[in-house]
User: What shape does this take?
Amino acid sequence: MTGNTAEAEDLTQEAFLQLFRKIATFRGESAFSTWLHRLAVNVVLMHLRKKGLQQISLDETDTSQEEPVKRDYGDDDRRLVGSIDRVSLTRAIQDLPPGYRAVFVLHDIEGYEHNEIAEIMNCSVGNSKSQLHKARLKLRDRLKEDRRKEFLGATIPVDKPNGKGLR
Amino acid sequence: MTERDFQPTPGCAQFDRELMDYLEGEARPFVSTHARECAFCSVLLADLEQLRFSARQLPLQEPSPSVWANLHARLEQEGLIRPRVRGWDWLESLRALARPAPLGALASLAILGAMFIASPIALQVPESAASVSTAPQAAVVASASFADDRELARMTQDLEATFRANEGLLAPETRDTYEKGLTSLDDSIRECKDSLRQKPDNTLAQDYLLTAYTRKAEILTTALEFQGR
Assistant: This one.
């Protein structure tokens, strides 16, 4: 969620400290894992707030729903199938806005269900689904853009007739 | 063909509206039907499914060991956990005990242990030689006599007596755990004594005996501390 290993480790430590400080406040109203994850997510969100990073409120009105989804024709050079490597995907996830990133990481990477995410992130199940969908579309756009750049880099000649390279 | 060539149809708009629910596992037959007919939407669907698959393959990162070490230090610093007991640190836990008898016995045992470690040869000195020793041999003789089984047993017995007097304070499962540990150590002590009876110069048995007594003292000490909470 932070996009930075050192920062993530600091926040892991902070989350566990909070766990020890607040364990007495756990009343068993939710699964312990959900409670713990919510605590951890809160630590991260507080940190991001302190850093002044733009956050997407998961309960804000979704105005982008009506925007048409970008499409490319089924050209093998452009489609993502079989071309998503871990490094590109990790980088693209890191560049997502924090709210999108949190839902995507919780659902698509860590395997949480939307009702659990809703509880963790304090939002509705519908918003969790909507944010996840938008996160996936954003990731797709980003990965296709990377792929397009790669494709152009591979096809544009390195050396022009005047001897000056483009790269 | 690219986005510039894309002319959305009403079917594509419906595809967009139903795509999210379809990916969430809801029955949306229109999505798959339309994807078979529209190359643009087909690529979109394939991309999103591939993305979902690839995300699931990403490894979850484990924090480095330093995170846990730092966390442990912070928790200790804030008094949220007690310092880790290791090696001879168990003697520190005696500070919490306000029981002079076991404390004295344990201190004697510690001194005895130090003497054993410092002069293992002392254990091999026959008692007959010790009884006619000269001044320089006095310390060795003292160590040898101090190593008497009965002396060791008396020290741990003091600790055990205090433990027994208060064992009712422990939860049954905790008491069972301590009992198992003590029974096992008593068995070891018995075996060592048997070996030493047959072969008094068996240094390995002597070492094991000391270790067993020390370990028993550790267990009794932690048990007494537990009872004192």
In short: Residues 43 and 216 of chain B are 71 Å apart (CA to CA). Chain B has two domains: 8-57, 87-228. The mean pLDDT of chain B is 70.
